[in-house]
Each structure stands twice: as C-alpha cells, then as structure tokens.
Design brief:
By secondary structure, the protein is mainly alpha-helical. It is built from twelve helices and five strands. The longest helix has 24 residues.
Length: 245
C-alpha cells in the first residue's frame, strides 16, 4: 500500500466516528463508535456470492443494544470539496483535500481546507493528523509557494499561519518543494529533529510536563517512520506507558 494510502487509512481509523456520521448518518446513531476495533484482515468472503473482495478497512463495533456489528469501509472520494468544507465534522475538512476543487487553485484549496482545521476547538494531535492529510494531498508546485506564503501573512489566515508554525514542520514543506539531491541528507536530519520536537510538544500538551527520561528517549529516536507513528498514536494513548515512553 502506498504511503499516501497508509496515511489516509490512519486518518480514517482516528476519525472513524466522524466518517460514519458523514457517510451513514442514519446508521451512526445506532452504534457505539468511540471504541472501534480495526481488524487486520483485508480479505473477507461474500457469503452471498462466494467471492473474495478486497476491503479498505474493516471495523468491529457494537450496537446501542450491545450486539456486535461489522463495518466495512470502502472510500471513493467523488464529492465537491465545498460540500464537505461546510460540514461540522473535522474529518470532512481533511477529506475535502482529495475532492474536486470547483475552480479553486491548489493554493486556494489548501488554505480553504486548513482554515477550519486551524480554527477548530480540537486537540493538537488531531489537528496534526488532519492538517497533515491536507498537506499530503494538496501539494504545491515550486512556483506556487511564494503566493501561498504571502497569503499566510494576511489577517484572515493568521490561524493557518500559526498552525503551520507550531504544528507542522518547515522541513516537511521544504521536502514537498523539492531540494537538490546533494541537500537530501541535511533535509532528512533536519526533518528528524523537527519531528522529535513536534512529538515532544504533542506529548507535553497531552500529558503535561514530561519526565526527563521520556525526553531523553524521544531525543534518542532516529527513525522518521517511528517518530511519525508515535505522533499519530498520541491521540489514542491514555498514558506515556502506552507509547513505550
């Protein structure tokens, strides 16, 4: 599965309740959606046809009566972005990044998706996950970055600018813009530093002042993939021990 698909799958798992309210508003109130169990299996038998079909995501939940229910999620993004940007669920604003822009430029579309995320009264870990989805799927060309950064200076975009500064690393953006191969090593090292600082900030916001031992463990991490995984898991962790920190 491509990295983009993995990121999208993580987003859906973290915001499963939002997804169900968006795509199945009549069914969602009948289910307990706060603690879904996601199953590893991607191959299930269709008992009616006896065929195998590949699934994007399979979750087990319970009904309000306590009965187990299996939810099969197959996402095809075809709607207009404006419709989803008008919805109240934060997940919808991230999903809008994948949708038809309706005449907007990439710069305008990116800002339109990030603005409600930046203003939302949700925890920083969820903001990171949602905003990272937008950054992943609405990438800008080199020629568009000057305009984007100029628009960030406007008063109406101050929340987005603040989120870019505090929650999203400059080097993530630099990697999207593309540097020469000779700079790749420095970018990778800088990206790791940025991810370590972001993880420490998320942990402190979630759990309060961190023990010195935890800070040392995080600063010793050298894998960008592990740092990203830990940052995504902060949202669901109840204590530092759940993260092995």
């Amino acid at each position: 599965m491509p990295d983009h698909d993995q990121h999208f799958k993580k987003l859906i798992e973290a915001c499963f309740a939002d997804l169900m309210r968006i795509v199945a508003p009549r069914i969602a109130p009948r289910l307990h959606l706060d603690r879904p169990t996601f199953l590893d299996k991607e191959q299930f038998t269709d008992t009616r046809e006896g065929e195998h079909r590949r699934l994007d995501l399979v979750a087990q939940v319970s009904s309000i009566r306590g009965d187990p229910e299996l939810v099969i999620v197959h996402v095809e993004v075809e709607a207009q972005a404006r419709e989803y940007l008008a919805r109240p669920e934060p997940l919808a604003w991230a999903l809008a990044a994948l949708m038809r822009r309706g005449g907007r430029s990439a710069v305008e579309h990116r800002l339109a998706c990030l603005a409600p995320i930046a203003r939302a009264e949700i925890d920083d870990a969820r903001k990171v996950l949602l905003a990272s989805c937008v950054e992943t799927y609405v990438q800008l060309e080199e020629s568009e970055w000057d305009l984007y950064e100029a628009l960030l200076d406007r008063e109406e975009n101050r929340e987005v600018a603040a989120m870019e500064r505090t929650l999203l690393t400059t080097l993530d953006r630099a990697a999207q813009r593309g540097f020469a191969e000779g700079m790749e090593k420095g970018i990778a090292e800088g990206e790791q530093r940025g991810k370590r600082e972001l993880l420490l900030d998320l942990l402190a916001r979630r759990f309060g002042p961190l023990p010195d031992a935890t800070v040392q463990r995080v600063r010793a991490l050298t894998s960008s993939e592990e740092l990203s995984r830990l940052a995504e898991r902060v949202l669901d962790a109840r204590k530092l021990d759940d993260l092995g920190l």
